[in-house]
Amino acid sequence: MLKTEESPIQAAVRALHTARRVVVATGAGMSRESGIPTFREALTGLWARYDPEELATEAAFRRHPARVFGWYAWRRRLVRAAVPHAGYHALVSLEGLVSELAIVTQNVDGLHRRVGSRRVLELHGSLDRFSCVDARHPFPADRAPEPEADTECEPPRCERCGSPVRPDVVWFGEMLAAGVTAEAWDLAASCRAMLVVGTSGLVQPAAQLPFIARDAGATVIEVNPEPTEISGVAHIVCRGPAGAVLPALVAALSQGATK
Ligand code: BV8
């Protein structure tokens, strides 16, 4: 995919320039430069001794509701304090440079929506929403307790059935919502270019998206400072942080657009 004298950014610009439909698939690395730790890093403080894949399950919540609810309250505080970096704003600008752009994110922090990206599919739900664990009755976010310190926190009870309230995210062992999954798979199978940003490609089924795009003939472009499970399927690899690579990519694309 790379011409000999081309840099990865130039090759990516060439692919984006001709792509009618572009999908950007993002993972936890997309929020790293906004101060939100990724899953593979050690968690800080109270949570350093727990494995996220242990805490992010219904079984953990039913066994230790205050610990799991407190962990999400801690993450919500991090997210509220987070400032979306230049890479987020570059993706908003990218909407004006390609015919059709959709963001499919594994992240639950809502940062793409916060900066104004228009079409965002949240495969794994959102920290901003709550529902009860037994019947998934919605629970008003403004009623959720917001403990100041990083401590365990008893979840509120559902006003309709009395079961404990959980964050409205997809836990390990849970199915993704059918609608958003179907839409994301359709986009991956019909896009002409897919930017894969900040994901280790370890969590299924989200990790299939770049493979679906590649099999459908799209150009797959990875943006990540480290090699990942996706690197082997990417036609173009931009080795670097999202906060630097995405602005550089969009600046080069917009210069090309004005030529
Ligand atoms: C499912 C929401 C059907 C919650 C998340 C055994 C039993 C049950 C299931 C399984 C099983 N074995 C496998 C499975 C399937 C399981 C899975 O994939 N497990 C993995 C661990 C092997 N998947 C599921 O359970 C899914 N459901 O399969 O249902 C089913 C049902 C029953 C039984 C079988 C199958 C549901 C998965 C969704 C889980 N929920 N999030 C919450 O957030 O608390 S997943 C969560 O972790 C994130 O959403 C994200 O998806 C994932 C973390 O991955 P990444 O985003 O890639 O982040 P990571 O930290 O790994 O990597 C960061 C990357 O960023 C790195 O590459 C790094 O280099 C890079 N980076 C760092 N800095 C930067 C950067 N990049 C750019 N710029 C930078 N500055």
Shape: elongated
CATH architecture of the largest domain: 3-Layer(aba) Sandwich
CATH T-level topology of the largest domain: Rossmann fold
Kindly provide the name of the CATH class of the largest domain: Alpha Beta
Commentary on this structure:
By secondary structure, this protein is of the alpha/beta class. It has two domains: 1-35 and 84-124 and 176-259, 3-Layer(aba) Sandwich (Rossmann fold), CATH 3.40.50.1220; 37-81 and 129-169, 2-Layer Sandwich (SIR2/SIRT2 'Small Domain'), CATH 3.30.1600. It contains nine helices and nine strands. It has helices at 8-18, 52-55, 58-63, 65-81, 86-94, 111-115, 178-190, 209-215, 242-258; strands at residues 21-26, 100-105, 120-122, 125-132, 138-139, 165-169, 193-197, 219-223, 236-238. It has a six-stranded parallel beta sheet with strand order 3-2-1-7-8-9, with helices on both faces. The chain has a three-stranded antiparallel beta sheet with strand order 5-4-6. Helix 6 links the parallel strand 2 and strand 3. Helix 1 crosses helix 9, helix 5 runs parallel beside helix 9 and helix 7 runs parallel beside helix 8 (209-215). It is elongated. The two termini are 23 Å apart. Ligand BV8 is lined by residues 27-29, 32-33, 38-40, 53, 56, 106, 108, 124, 169-175, 197-200, 202-206, 223-226, 228, 241-243. The site of ligand BV8 has 37 residues, from helix 9.
